[in-house]
Design a protein that fits this description.
The protein is mainly α and about 190 residues long. The chain is built from 9 helices and 4 strands; from the N terminus they run αβααααββααααβ.
Length: about 190
């Protein structure tokens, strides 16, 4: 490592400026952290208007999220929200800096690995929900009427408590019903 020059600092700068001494290497300053978003929102307390402020948030999505919130449903992480809404990566990147996930109440439930399709699952598969038999029969009865659109639809039609719906986030899905004998009739 080269030793620093013995000249006083002013003389050293003059010699460096004239090229008679090599310039002191400059270190690049550390990159500044990305700027904080102009606004944030607690997803578990957000109003319809706040949801609509997010880029590309359609009215029906804002309505769905507010309906779930009214039913007492909370999201514990961005992954839960994005999985429910099936958002494209571009919207995820735009939304995430604005979202704050504060859990209000007891600890959030832990999701399972593979979502269970509630509109097409067999009776045996539905037993993995560990629901009381009366609730399972209500699900089957409502499913025969029409497939469920989403968690809010399921909650409203079965009058589920928020804790039951929160336990389903990330554990269930809602695809179009298959017709034919594959659906159980009980």
């Amino acid at each position: 490592m080269p030793r620093s020059h013995w000249l006083d600092p002013l003389a050293r700068k003059v010699l460096q400026a004239t090229g008679q001494l090599p310039a002191k290497p400059t270190s690049t300053p550390p990159a500044a952290p990305p700027p904080a978003p102009a606004w944030t929102m607690d997803v578990n307390r957000a109003s319809r208007e706040e949801w609509r402020q997010l880029p590309g948030c359609p009215e029906d999505t804002a309505d769905l999220l507010v309906r779930l919130q009214r039913g007492g449903v909370q999201f514990s992480a961005a992954a839960d929200l994005f999985q429910l809404l099936e958002l494209p990566d571009e919207l995820r990147r735009l939304w995430e800096p604005h979202l704050i996930f504060r859990w209000h109440g007891d600890a959030p439930p832990q999701p399972a690995a593979t979502p269970l399709d509630l509109n097409n699952a067999s009776t045996e598969e539905l037993h993995s929900l560990h629901w009381p038999e009366q609730r399972l029969q209500g699900l089957l009865r409502e499913r025969r009427r029409a497939g469920f659109r989403d968690l809010a639809d399921l909650q409203e039609r079965l009058c589920l408590p928020a804790s039951a719906v929160e336990a389903l986030i990330g554990r269930v899905s809602f695809t179009a019903r298959r017709s034919g004998p594959s659906l159980p009739l009980n």
